[in-house]
Predict the 3D structure of the following.
Amino acid sequence: MPTVRSDLTNKVILITGASRGIGRSVALNCAQAGAEVIITGRTMGALKELDDEISNIDGKATIVELDQTDTAAMARLAQAIATRWGRLDGFVANAGQLGQMGPMPHIDPEIFEKTIMVNLTSIWYQIAAFDTLLRASNAGRAVLVSSGAAQGARAYWGAYAVSKAGLEAMARAWAAESEKTDMRINLIDPGATRTAMRAAAYPGEDPNSLLTAEDITPAFLHLLSCNCTSQGMLYKAAELSARLG
């Protein structure tokens, strides 16, 4: 695990898509650093396993079963957080789906729309729900997970590329609107990291040639820290983690 960061102690941090991969690693390390983590996902069994692991290191976690397409759930979750803590110190928008890989004209319309909903529209609902809570913190931090697919031309990536490009534009707008607050909002590109989504996108790739989620977790911890002062930036997770040592 990365070195424990004392500046995350007693912070309330929400991580979506925490049941596996990057989200799981970020949640576990935030808890190990003393934060109270709210872990969301669709797979309750995996979330409970993560909760047990966090308990074993004397960490604090709250499990929330969350479907990214249930937009009304975002407001309910925000209200629950407001009632219990009155603020949100960190928000990691990690949950997402790859969608259908194939030529744009042949993508199933329902899959296209669901991919946009999960990767982009649902994040707007989360921003709308959590903005006030993040402003209530003395150092609210938001980290939105993008992808290299948002940049340049990439055949067959269809809705996923569209959704991540839209996410980057939305994050920068939110950051610009929050410039005069204590909030800091940034984007991170996990790059070539060993995840289930990466395996689906590149089925012939050797997973042992890739970074692990733990390798790039320091970048997330830095962007959640009150010491992070950048705003509206896109970071390559591997590069930032390497700079942090």
